[in-house]
Write a structure and sequence with these properties.
By secondary structure, the protein is an alpha/beta fold. It contains 8 helices and 11 strands. The chain has a 7-stranded parallel beta sheet with strand order 3-2-1-4-5-7-10, sandwiched between helices. 49% of the residues are buried. This is Nucleoside-diphosphate-sugar epimerase. InterPro entries: Epimerase_deHydtase (IPR001509), NAD(P)-bd_dom_sf (IPR036291).
Length: 301
Amino acid sequence: MSQQGTGGWRPDADAVVLVTGAAGVIGNVVVPYLADSGLRVVAVDRAPFASPKAERVLVGDVLDRDFVAESLRPFGGPVDAVVHLAAIPAPGQVPEDETLAQNVRGAYLVLDGAGRAGVRCAVAASSVAAYGYAWAERDLSPPYVPVDEAQPSVAIDSYGLSKTMTEQVGAFATRRWGMPTILLRFPFVGDGDRLAGHLARIRGDVAVNRRELWSWLDTRDAARAVHAALTSGLTGHHVFNVAAPDTSTTVPTAELLTRFHPDTRVRAPLGGVDSPLDSSAARRLLGFETRHGWRDADPTD
């Protein structure tokens, strides 16, 4: 799901990047990765946190308009780019209406505020939950696999809806301000003990992950995807699936689909343990390839 092409802004060695949700699962890895790549990072989260590689740490809530405005100008002028990761990360943590309201308001204040301030590029976390299967109250199946970004949302949960609306906020900010926006649809993201626990649950019962289509991504690859988006030079608004090329189980994908999604049409071959999510657009337009797998190594390493 893309608008326009390439030829936009690319960061130089002195570029300043604001990262919201910097203490979260993804943000905690994104901040040092961007800093190690030579970018100057301003890290934001709503509770006190340590971020040794950030040039500046700011504590505040992205639902606070004034705090967001100040964060976008930490050194007087606007930051060069924004990575918006702050959000309620899953349903059930707060009431449904608050999940929707907080995620969409935060995205609006950060992304619209960035465009208004003259920020050159924005990258934000969306989710495969935007398709509507992951957190639905009943089993839903995609009309076809591999699932690409053109597949429409059938979300019936507030978290999935909040992610589709976050993507729309990104498109709005691009239309309004001309600022490139790249939304990354992440599946389950983890490494170490978090990933090991996730894999163990699925190993015990593959059905528990049927609504997420057994998709996953190593946190270190999520950070690499953010960097690839920031340095892509894309203009316009884009939404990309960003997932590992394989599933989170050893059961063949064809067998999983037959058992749990029998009415889904297979439009392209899915051999072995190929992921039902199509991340080819991210490979093609961002130059993004995963580097970290779980099959040949202990996921706690």
